[in-house]
Amino acid sequence: MPSERLKFSYFVEFRKNKELKRLLKEGKISLMEFCDWVGEGKFRRGEDIRKLSMVLKDEQARQALIDDNFQAALDQLEQKNPAVKSKLFEKIEDVIYGLESLPFGELDEIKRGLQPAKIDCRI
Length: 123
What we know:
This protein starts with a helix and ends with a helix. With 123 residues, it is mainly α. 66% of the residues lie in helices and 0% in strands. It is built from 10 helices and no strands. Helix 6 packs antiparallel against helix 7. It folds into 2 domains: 81 residues, no CATH class; 38 residues.
């Protein structure tokens, strides 16, 4: 059946995901458990697997996945982290991370006007 073959992408996504591999190695998820979820139709598409590790790290979201489906798990997780389902909040998180990891010297140069191309970006 074509629909079963399409689910192969779920396993490809699982295998590519380093965080899921780590969780598998630590015993936080089993392949059998993942296979059951795929077979039960818990996921809508293969790209859902890219966010599975976030769900598995949160006990309430994991339980929502088990009790219902992946979308319910994301809804649960979104209450704590809006970036899970919002591209805007995801980008805001990226900007915050970038600012927090900005080397002090570079930040100081921007403040003092020594990097003119970046001055226009100052708030």
